[in-house]
Design brief:
single chain, alpha+beta, four-stranded antiparallel sheet
C-alpha cells in the first residue's frame, strides 16, 4: 500500500512582517512497517531550507525569510510505503507487569515515564483514573486497550474546543477535546502506572467505512506505549483504534510540545492567521515519476546498497542533503 500526502500550511499577516524563522516537522519517519519514499518541501516566499535530526531521529527542516512579506506558505508532499501490520494479541502472558518493570530498569525510557509539559498528573486526572479504575491489574496490554476505549466513550470529540497550548484539565473539565487532548490524557495516565509512553504526531487515512471521529483534512496524534514482547504499540483513543496501516507517523516526543508540525517566530507588529489543509490518498502502485526516481537511484548505487539507503538514517540523511544542495543551485 502506498500513500500520498499533501500538507499545506498558510500564515497570513495583517501587515507585512520583516522576517520569519520557522521549523517544520512534516517529514514522515522510516521505520518498522512504514517507509518514506519521497519528501518534497516548497516554501513561498523562497527560502534556503536546511535539515537536521533531533535526539529521537525526527527530521526537522528549518528556514528563515529575511525580507518583508504578508504571507508564508509551506507545502509538504510525501509518498509513503506501508507494509501489512500484524494482528496484536488481546492480552499478554502472566508476569507481563514484572517483565515491563525489568525492561524499564534495563532500558533508556525514563524521559517517556516522567511528567512532561502537557502530559502530567493533576487532581482532575487522578479523579478520572479512579473513575476508570486505572490501576495495575490484568496485564499492561489489556489495560491499555480498556483505557483506550473508555477515553473514547467518556470524551466527546469537538474541534476547536481547546487550543494547542491547552492543559489537559481543560479537556478533563468539559469532557471534550481533540486528538491532542486525548493523547495527552492517556499518556499521563499510563505513565502514572509505570508504562513508558510517547506522543506520536502524524496523519490518519480516513475511509468512509471507518466512521472516524477525528477530522479529515488535518494532522492526527496518538499514543505509543512500550510493552513486553511487542515493543512500542500505538493506541488511538480519539477513534478507539490500535494504530495500524492507516496511521502514518511523522514525529515522536514526550508530548505535543516536542513535535508541533510548525514552530516559528516573526518580526513585526502584526496579527497572524493560520490555515492548514491535509490530504491523504492511497495508490496501489508506486507513482510513475517516483518509480523512475527509485530506478535512477538504483543505477547510481552498487547493487544492494539502495535497499539499505531507505532504512539507514545516516545514508538517507546524506541523500536528502545532496538533493537539497541540488535544489538550491
Amino acid at each position: 500500500m502506498y500513500y500520498r500526502i499533501r500538507h499545506l500550511t498558510r500564515f497570513r499577516y495583517s501587515v507585512p512582517v520583516s522576517e520569519s524563522l520557522m521549523e517544520v516537522r512534516m517529514h514522515p519517519r522510516t521505520e518498522a512497517q512504514q517507509r518514506c519514499l519521497d519528501y518534497q518541501l516548497a516554501v513561498t516566499p523562497k527560502a534556503s531550507v536546511h535539515t537536521y535530526r533531533d535526539f529521537l531521529a525526527n527530521s526537522i527542516h528549518h528556514f528563515g525569510i529575511p525580507g518583508p512579506h504578508r504571507q508564508l506558505q509551506i507545502m509538504a508532499e510525501s509518498v509513503i510505503e506501508m507494509k501489512p501490520w500484524h494482528d496484536l494479541p488481546y492480552f499478554l502472558a502472566p508476569g507481563a507487569w514484572a517483565e515491563l518493570d525489568r525492561m524499564v530498569h534495563l532500558g533508556d525510557t525514563l524521559e517517556m515515564l516522567l511528567p512532561s509539559h502537557f502530559a502530567k498528573p493533576t487532581p482532575a486526572l487522578e479523579r478520572l483514573m479512579k473513575e476508570l479504575d486505572a490501576v495495575r491489574r490484568d496485564d499492561p496490554l489489556s489495560l491499555l486497550r480498556e483505557l483506550n476505549t473508555r477515553i473514547f466513550e467518556k470524551f466527546e470529540y469537538v474541534p476547536r474546543s481547546t487550543r494547542v497550548d491547552s492543559p489537559i484539565d481543560d479537556a478533563l473539565s468539559q469532557r471534550a477535546g481533540v486528538c491532542q487532548d486525548f493523547t495527552h490524557i492517556m499518556t499521563a495516565m499510563a505513565r502514572q502506572l509505570g508504562i513508558p509512553c510517547r506522543y506520536v504526531s502524524g496523519y490518519l487515512h480516513h475511509r468512509d467505512e471507518d466512521n472516524d471521529r477525528s477530522s479529515d483534512g488535518a494532522t492526527h496524534a496518538w499514543v505509543e506505549a512500550l510493552l513486553p514482547e511487542l515493543g512500542w504499540v500505538g493506541f488511538d483513543p480519539t477513534n478507539n483504534l490500535l494504530a495500524g496501516h492507516r496511521h502514518i507517523r511523522t514525529a515522536i516526543g514526550r508530548d505535543y510540545n516536542d513535535v508541533p508540525p510548525t514552530r516559528g517566530v516573526f518580526k513585526g507588529d502584526a496579527q497572524s492567521e493560520l490555515s492548514v489543509t491535509v490530504a491523504v490518498t492511497t495508490c496501489r502502485e508506486l507513482p510513475p515519476e517516483l518509480a523512475e526516481l527509485v530506478l535512477g537511484e538504483q543505477d547510481a548505487f552498487p547493487q544492494g546498497v539502495i535497499a539499505l539507503a531507505h532504512d539507514d538514517a545516516e545514508i538517507l540523511a546524506a541523500i536528502e542533503r545532496e538533493q537539497q544542495m541540488q535544489q538550491q543551485q
